[in-house]
Known about the structure:
Blueprint: E1 3-7, E2 10-12, E3 18-25, E4 33-39, E5 46-51, E6 58-60, E7 68-73, E8 78-83, E9 92-99, E10 108-109, E11 113-117
Parallel strand pairs: 2-11
Antiparallel strand pairs: 1-3, 3-8, 4-5, 4-9, 5-6, 7-8, 9-10, 9-11
Amino acid sequence: QLQLVEFGGGLVQPGGSLRLSCAAIRFTLDYYAIGWFRQAPGKERERVSCISSSDDSTYYADSVKGRFTISRDNAKNTVTLRMNSLKPEDTAVYYCAADSLCIATMTYWGQGTQVTVSS
Length: 119
């Protein structure tokens, strides 16, 4: 079974940047669509971004468009979410997920990594 691991969460001040990485254990990520989701306390899970497996086309939620960038590094077998101009409302647990397509509910999930944006 595909296992995913997220790296790179932490505490950052408003306006700062973080880079989250998603890695797979014993699988090649470029065969999968990879999505980033987040869930803040008391809120529903939100799909933040996704990159397709076929042509690396990307999706961004309106709330992060222009600030977040998703990309693949096939040499490292990772998918990275670069987050710039972070806001307190970006605070959440961020999860990467994998499936054959970029869909709202994906099959394989990582354990999540906390991102806190606070001064």
